[in-house]
Amino acid sequence: xxxxxxxxxxxxxxxxxxxxxxxxxxxxxxxxxxxxxxxxxxxxxxxxxxxxxxxxxxxxxxxxxxxxxxxxxxxxxxxxxxxxxxxxxxxxxxxxxxxxxxxxxxxxxxxxxxxxxxxxxxxxxxxxxxxxxxxxxxxxxxxxxxxxxxxxxxxxxxxxxxxxxxxxxxxxxxxxxxxxxxxxxxxxxxxxxxxxxxxxxxxxxxxxxxxxxxxxxxxxxxxxxxxxxxxxxxxxxxxxxxxxxxxxxxxxxxxxxxxxxxxxxxxxxxxxxxxxxxxxxxxxxxxxxxxxxxxxxxxxxxxxxxxxxxxxxxxxxxxxxxxxxxxxxxxxxxxxxxxxxxxxxxxxxxxxxxxxxxxxxxxxxxxxxxxxxxxxx
DNA sequence: AGAAAGCGTCTCCCCCAA
DNA sequence: CTAGTTGGGGGAGACGCT
Length: 377
Description:
Elements lengths: L3 E7 L2 H9 L8 E4 L8 E4 L1 H4 L9 H7 L4 E3 L3 H16 L5 E5 L2 E6 L4 H16 L3 E6 L2 H11 L4 E3 L5 H5 L12 H8 L6 H4 L4 H19 L15 E12 L2 H21 L3 E10 L5 E6 L8 H14 L6 E12 L9 H20 L12
Parallel strand pairs: 2-4, 7-8
Antiparallel strand pairs: 1-6, 1-7, 2-3, 5-6, 9-12, 10-11, 10-12
Helix pairs in contact: 4-5, 11-12
This protein binds a DNA duplex through helix 1, strand 3, helix 3, helix 10 and strand 9.
């Protein structure tokens, strides 16, 4: 039997960091993101801004109408990553069983019956050491931990166990279930289903018939059954870069030049993380917002800027575009770390192999089993 | 009604081979 | 010999997060 599951979610993370780094913003409506000519959207906003109806993903022009006095800050991803790492360090001092979901969110597993006390201590530690608020949901599975973390916000902790869930959650919209977005909610509404207790009346066959494999998962969820284990070593599956132009672009040469830039940026990040890619996709958005992607898996591993751009260019030209574009992007996926031919020098290669061997042995027999004698490490 | 970033992952569908 | 099944890979788009 596994232990208690915690979902730790930093409150209004980007906005809170801005308020932390710029104390004059404390207590004020803050919007992070939202620049980019007049085409920006809100990436994150403080609770003071939310009081005016401002939300993530809202166009800045709309947010400004709702809250003209909001202070708009650019995204400073490096800083957020730095603080996120510090938060993870604190989590690690409580348990080694951590699944990092995103920059501001992680599942933790602790001893059975220890969830509430550990969660309370974690909240205190993060507040004391980093001055950040973290909301925590506690349960015996990931689903209810996630849902109760949302009920705990802002700056709270809530435990919710499967036996209490029907009573506590029955009246809430089906949208509280992660994975039930606007489309699924609309579909359910066409059957007159709005809230959790209505949905939970349907038998498994109904879910299977109407929603397939996803439906069976949803049936389990709405009965508060969720056996998903924590994924402790999640590896990145794709690397991408995209840009929305401040004004639509139709010039093909210009678009190709931008595609080249983006390919180089993706190539740099690919090599920096030691991956090679099997697949490259380009993404294109037209002024009317219709978005398409096209991808290619050329049969050899991609890692040089030249190869990335070559494929991107081919995909772009195959589209025979005539309309102007609003956005263009490049993404690589099917990442491969094993079969890579190193770009490093021979010496660095040996250095890497040695590091790898040491890592393997320590993994197998425990840390500190072997170490390097002097030199690097 | 009008406005809509930049990441990333998931899921559906198709095709092919065993 | 033919039809159905399964599993993997590729491609496209939906979805979710700040």
